[in-house]
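Submission sheet (multi-component)
Chains listed below:
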Amino acid sequence: MDTLSHILHGFNVALMPINLWYTFLGCFMGTIIGILPGIGPAAGIGLLIPITFGMDPTSALIMMAGIYYGAMYGGSTTSILINTPGEASSVMTALDGYQMAKNGRAGAALAVSAIGSFIAGTFGIIALTLLAVPLAAIALKFGPAEYFCLMLFALAAVSSLTGKSAAKGIISTLLGLMVATIGIDLQSGQPRYTMGVPELQDGVGFLVVVVGMFAIGEVFSNLEEHIKGKAEIIRLKGRLWLTAEEWRRSILPIIRGGLIGFFKGVLPGAGATIATMLSYTVEKRISKTPEKFGTGMIEGVAGPEAANNAATCGAMVPLLTLGIPGSGATAVLMGAFIMYGIQPGPLLFEKRPDLVWGLVDSMYIGNIMLLILNLPLIGLFVRILYIPTGILLSLILAISAIGVYSINGNTLELQMALMFGVIGYLFRKIDIPLAPMVLALVLGGIMEQSFRQAMTISGADPKVFVGSGICVTLLVLAVVMLVLPVVLPRLRAMKAGPEDLDS
Amino acid sequence: MLIDRIIGVAALLLAAVYLYATAQIPTLEIGDPLGPKAFPRLLGIALIAAAILLFVETLKADKAAEDKAPRGNLHHLWLIGGVTAWTALYFGVFDLAGYLVATTIYLLVLTSVFNRGKRMANILTSVLFALGSYILFVGILGVSLAKGVPPIDAISTGVDSGWKSAVAVAKSMFGR
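Outcome: structure written.
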């Protein structure tokens, strides 16, 4: 009963006018970020963190979360109208969505993705509400050794499931963990790898890496695409609604997509991208006319879009209950939590139930707002696509500068962000996924601390990591995650498409 | 694939440098049985293992014998190199020239390269964006952005006080 009152009290928090305003602002900006080609949810959250400086943490996090799921929502518009998915998780939507638009059914494609997103998103939040409490209760029993194993599992899953090569994913993860070791070691007070640079004593700023790799690096990739040629925007015409026939065809894919999406979203590494691919594959397989997929089948839009948004909610489960994000975007969200001095995880449910449930409950409201923003108002947002790409990309670089500089007022950090931008650009070129590195950077500090705590408790006996059933299970799962792609070539073939998880 | 071999070698080199740097960390034996070196040492070793795994993967890929055409070309390399250098210069003079001036010039050049032929729109965008974002972040959100050294800082101060008096006028007009 206690929990129920917390959940209901969360609505009190979420319905406060100021928080309603920030939910709206987050969803609004998220939609814009989702629509803008060349800037994904991770970069969007990173770039907008400075705006929230000085805000109440609950309101700030409500807005950040709004940006996150808003951006996942808005991504479909770009896929459908210009066939340029802004996010890897919208790639599947483009396959049939763009064809529908070419056939003059752009309105129906946008409508089904908005409605599908709304239904699946709401289902996802309900599931999140139900799953959060028991999971947090289990996680409370975790000691440092269990936590270390859990993080190892999460990193293994992300390394092996993002991108085409497990080895490259692991390298990306290790680079992130290494960057996290830069700075003064908290336990011994020793500076590590600072090379005598005083600015590095506090470590490499999280936002420096995020803005560099996701914003600046992404702009570089897009500039290259931009000079190759311009995508044509399909004009939005016709009613933004579905015919009865289209309704009938869409409803089951939405339900299936929502289920697939949520469970894939909860698992680390799998995330929204794989959920959309799985949903598309399922719809194609059970369809009576699989050969028509790719020519504008509404099922191919409804399913993946529902999966995408349910996965977004699913991804909030491990983030909130365990304090372990499973994707690039949720890692950035966790970075935002930490910048506000809030450590997500099971303890948060005991210490700040108002914040946790205020945030979760705000998602119900945000989802309704997004339906309105993405259906009746989509015509306004589509105009964003008419901003010349050359101007847009230039402005993103300048906004990146503001974002990084406003943290510490330090131009060395600007140069470092540029360096990470170049690294991010190169990684995209050579198929090294970025999400594992950012995830590892966020988790690195906590991971080392739990490693050392566990070893201290056991008196430097590494057997502590196989000392409990939970540890052994997680370690076995971690190994399975790493071995799986090698053993199951079919899985490899399936994920041979997009390069990056929902970064 | 050649590029994967290069990545593997680079990872090995990085692991070596990292392990060497780890060995250089001075340790004081107090309380903590592991000290600041143990975890990094594991990371270094793991990176070597990952590089070896990558070599194994490349061998397999070579057997499958497929080679995609290399993406991008030299022209693109120049382009990205140019943007990087220009951005580095922008960041380098950020404190000196101040946000307003540096950003306006930075954007003017970028937009005229990537949005060629629309001179008026580019000038307007560059000036208005720099001005608008400065007012938004400094005037409204209270974030500090570089003002620049004298005499350039006069511009920033001017914009600042201009904004403040505009707000004051607006307040008095609406009677608050």
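Remark: Chain A touches chain B through 59 residues (CB under 8 Å).
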